[in-house]
Amino acid sequence: MFSKGLKDVVAVQTHIASVDGEIGELRYRGVLVNELIPAHSFEEIAYFIWHGELPTEQNLKYLENELRKGRDLPSHVQTVLDALPMDVSIMDALRTAVSAFCHTHFLTKSMNEQAIILTAAMPVIAARHYRKQQGVAAINPNPQLSHIANYLWMLTGKIPTSIQVEALETYLTLTMEHGLNAATFAARVTISTESDLTAAITSAIGTMKGPLHGGAPSGVIALLEEIGTQEHIKQVVEGKLQRKEKLMGFGHRIYKTEDPRSILLRDKCTSMYGQDAWLDLATVAEKEITTLLEQYKPGRKLYTNVEYYAAAIMRSIDMPPALFTPTFSMARIIGWTAHAIEQLQDNTIFRPQSEYIGNK
């Protein structure tokens, strides 16, 4: 039976994550994200997705140390980055630099070790190429900082505030994994040929680059900037609804109720109320916009999606739009690598059929 885009076709059985759009549930390894994520760091959640259990204190220290070591890019990868023209996009720089990890020393490591190295390298690559595009010198990693804090440090040269780190960390832990999306499927298809992890992640990055998949929440930022202050929410939003304009950040193709990731991000932003003007605006605006949507589009159940609060967080830390998808990718690589490793544990090469409809 033909299904365009393989919609609703089950192609994979997985232990890694499940998405139930009807009731609005996202689970990592069977555990609801709202139970798992608030109490754990990026590093702990990454370990959980890779191994199916939370790390012991010893395992966490090992992972944190290996991630710090992985921030030191091999000299040939740095040379590749230095050779890229400034107008090459950051996603293209990621794809090219990651593909350069296919050297013998790297390939002799276990896949779990490779996953850690590539995870550590992603934010370093993105930050280096971003600063190159800005015409400023690269900033060396800071071994005293966590994975997320170091990323922000390498972008700006400033130690980020705890508010910035907490907000971004919550967003990135919520986007590590989300079922068999296009990029994850691409990674599994590539690794199913018994290729290597580097090739699988390169395939995933190329897929994520497409605007239909890894599109940035720029539209939400534009909405929040147009609103500007809490006093203007109703005026701006009602004007858009009366003109039948789409409100970016509301509605999701999978979730028929509230996006569980959005709920957690809202809770995080609410807990920080009064400490960041953009996060404050987003939390107040969501309530008013949801009420107005129910008045103008009754029964449609248009709730915020993860992009809404992602946009607020990105705006609050002055993250430029060119970094939105690369930043998303540095979280999603956790899921990509987990799926690639799982695929090889019970592998069958993907070989769907095509239906010829041309001239006979």
From TrEMBL:
Q: Which SUPFAM superfamilies does the record associate with it?
A: Citrate synthase (SSF48256)
Q: Which InterPro entries match?
A: Citrate_synth-like_lrg_a-sub, Citrate_synth-like_sm_a-sub, Citrate_synthase, Citrate_synthase_AS, Citrate_synthase_bac-typ, Citrate_synthase_sf
Which reaction does this chain catalyze? oxaloacetate + acetyl-CoA + H2O = citrate + CoA + H(+)
- Give, as in the UniProt entry, the pathway in which the protein acts: Carbohydrate metabolism; tricarboxylic acid cycle
Q: Where is the signal peptide?
A: none
Domain of life per record? Bacteria
Keyword field: Transferase
Q: Which PANTHER family match?
A: CITRATE SYNTHASE (PTHR11739), CITRATE SYNTHASE, PEROXISOMAL (PTHR11739:SF4)
The family note in this entry says: Belongs to the citrate synthase family.
- This one is known as Citrate synthase
Which species?
A: Lysinibacillus piscis
